[in-house]
Amino acid sequence: MTKFSDLFKAMSSSKFRSIHQLMLLELAAVAVSSIWSLIRGDFSSATLFYSVMGWSIIPYLVSFVLLAVRNEQAFTRDTFRLAPISDGLFYAANLLSTVVSFLYLLVLQLVLMAVTGLIGWSTLSSMYDNMQMDLQYSDLGSNPVGVCLGMLTVMLVIYLLAWSTVSLVHLITSAASNYLPRARQRIVNGIVYVVMILITFRVVSYLMGQIAWMSSSLMGGTTVSSWWIGVLIMILIIAIETVANIFLLNKWVETTTN
Fold this sequence. Notes:
By secondary structure, the chain is mainly α. The protein has helices at residues 4-40, 47-55, 57-76, 78-81, 87-119, 121-136, 144-177, 182-220, 224-251. 85% of the residues lie in helices and 0% in strands. The longest helix is centred in the C-terminal third of the chain and has 39 residues, at 182-220.
């Protein structure tokens, strides 16, 4: 039997490469925009920080799509599916590697913001002092660590729900296409890819709306009970979809040659 840790490392490697490529593209975008600011004559010590903040949203959105693609490829390609391991552990290793890769992206983004923030601290220090003053008179200031952890929890739960839903749609379609002739399978697969793209964009817009709403709820402190109910409902849906996905993997979904 293949060890869970070995499968997890193998699945994580390709996803980490995708994250590294995204970070390189972000650094290139930051460099180009900063050089353009220098050419225009409005470059300052805080320009790098502002550029990082401006471009950071792109890796989050693109990483969701890339990690979803990597996640789904593992289900139907024989590179990992032929490993001697149970479907439950296989699914867990795949999903956990996706989550860890996303957390890795968050850490890299925080490091990049910290480095550029220190470079521009002479300009940003006054802004930081003003933020500290504002936090003292807000609900967020009473428990900033708890709010940040709550926001991170919300983001991870929503992303998990999105990935499990995409997997459910993909696996159901893959199982159904097994009963079609090969020529029609290609047509169905093409339709699936289009539908998956549309679902992805819908999910991303939903993610942004939910994160914004729950973040405002956390900061305002007015609907904390509703926030927890929403999180618990999403966790319940994730659990149900996980059981369905593992069942589909075990009974209906076949691998394809790489």
